[in-house]
Amino acid sequence: MDLTLNAVYLKVPEGYVGFVEELPGANTQGETLDEARENLKEAVELIIEANRALVADTIKGGEVLKEVLT
């Protein structure tokens, strides 16, 4: 599987708004395109970290199989 995330950037009067099509909640803004890109990378990392923490709490004590999705 080739997993690709698509970043979309919209030019607005204040700079740029960015979001990831495949990851709801991954959105940000920046005064420049470079700033929006960096902010979006950080938003994606934070969402993944938060989701992993939620899963860890959910599966605690259960019989679980985890594997890398390929």
Task: Give the tags.
70 residues; alpha+beta; three-stranded antiparallel sheet; 23% strand
What's the structural blueprint in terms of helices and strands?
Layout: E1 7-12, E2 15-20, E3 27-30, H1 33-59
Antiparallel strand pairs: 1-2, 2-3
Detailed description of the structure:
Helix content is 39%, strand content 23%. The protein has one helix spanning 33-59, and strands at 7-12, 15-20, 27-30. The protein has a 3-stranded antiparallel sheet, covered by helices on one side. With 70 residues, the chain is α+β, with helices and mostly antiparallel strands. The mean pLDDT is 94. The chain contains 1 helix and 3 strands; from the N terminus they run E-E-E-H. It is elongated and about 50 Å long.
How would you concisely characterize the structure shown here?
The chain is α+β, with helices and mostly antiparallel strands.
Class per helix and strand makeup: alpha+beta
The helix fraction, in percent, is: 25-40%
What is the 3D shape?
elongated
Low-confidence stretches: none
Biggest β-sheet: strands ordered side by side in the sheet: 1-2-3
How large is the share of residues in beta strands? 15-25%
- Give the end-to-end Cα distance, rounded to a whole number of Å: 5 Å
